[in-house]
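Support request, please re-run this one:
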Amino acid sequence: MRLFAPAIAFVDLETTGTSAGSEAITEMGIVRVDAPGDGAPRVREWSTLVQPGVPVPPEIQALTGISNAMVRDAPRFEAIASTVRAWLADALFVAHNARFDYAFLKHAFARIGERYRARVLCTVKLSRRLFPDAQGHGLDAVIARHGIACNERHRALGDARALWQFVQALYRDCASDAIESCVHRILRTPSLPPHLAPDIIDALPESPGVYLFYGLNALPLYIGKSRNLRERVAAHFSADHRSATDLRLSSEIRRIAHEETAGEIGALLREAELVKSLMPAYNHALRRKRDSGVLELSPSPAAPRFLPAGELDASSLAGRYGPFASRRHAREALQHLAREHRLCLVALGLEHRAGPCFARQLKRCEGACTGEESKEAHHARVVAALAPFAIPAWPFPHLAVMIERGEFGERTDVHVLRDWCWLGTARDESQLGAIIEAPPRADFDIDIARLLIKTVQRRRLPVHAVGCARAAVDHSPAFLSPEPAATLPRPAGTSSQADCLIWP
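Re-run finished. Output below.
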């Protein structure tokens, strides 16, 4: 029997909850299928209960039948880790809603100081691709649709067996080529350029960071970022996902480099910095910084004025509007607001004519251009219409730091900020002290400003004030501890602990 991979591990985990970071595994089941290609596949099974180290909630006990008494004397994960690795070695990891099972397994290994990674296939995605018109793709729906016998539903080995039966049913009912095509699309199997080593994708980590594509020259052709470096780079070379840019890159690329970061924010910041400094040929969007800017609205009635980014002092951003990628984008935003709020095109500076503006002629303007609406009243409506674009005031007295920790706590990035600008990232206390002791000039960057405003407003990461910029740093090991501190170590010379309170 020919299968879509020479070795497949059908995996199912039962857990104490849904969060891989805070919950734990209670049971593991693996059905391993090794298919030599010229005969019947070899099928082996393994399962075990696992001591989770935390109580099993009543609702989970009711669903799975796994009680606290059952797992009390079961082995902890560290005792079975080597066995798990042996059963999964060199096999395609297959699970239903695979992101869930794979995340729990990676966290379990990370807790014992080990890293685990594998190629992962989700049978939910496989079912959706092969049966797009089917009603439901959960495991119960798949079992019913394909007549699968599953006597131990919601137990690890029983569900793993059901997945193996599902794949057997696919080969019974579907063409092999169709199955393999779907699998390759889900896995984004890369078709690597001939100049790259065949194992280069497997050598990349499944962590956030930036990647750099190089040609024959010292400067990179392209710089990108991702929450999963291996998955994103592989996508560039997946034949059915290629863009015109990817196709051109494939013919020129000779080498791939990467840098890991603690999280997505660090990857975005580092990408913006590298693109700005190295100017890669294929990063057109991030290179167009000089066209960006903001709108300024004076207190008295007057048309909004566009200020290019190069003319901006970062400390004066508050009270202005944007940021916009270009003068054209700012103009389009004003045109949209004019239509939505019946604003005057002449008063907004979008038309230069005597008499009624075009919108007034269509009865879509309240008449600021004809004197039927006072300039003051129109100006007040412009201020209200632009309010969603208002750049908020920097909420700290001086510098602030944004703390970003890796998924498994093995890396911490501390981003130093001021006036919605990024001053640098520290990965140890000496780097942090150097940046705070002598902070660089805060240069306005439209993409970074947007990112920081959104991150702080949505409270995605802890942000702390650190006091005056010239203060020395108290090098406290607690600052980079796994658990966020309530306050930062107060630099010498800071007059009040209030300057160091966590935001918000």
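The chain has four domains: 7-187, 209-287, 293-389, 400-503. The chain has 17 helices and 16 strands.
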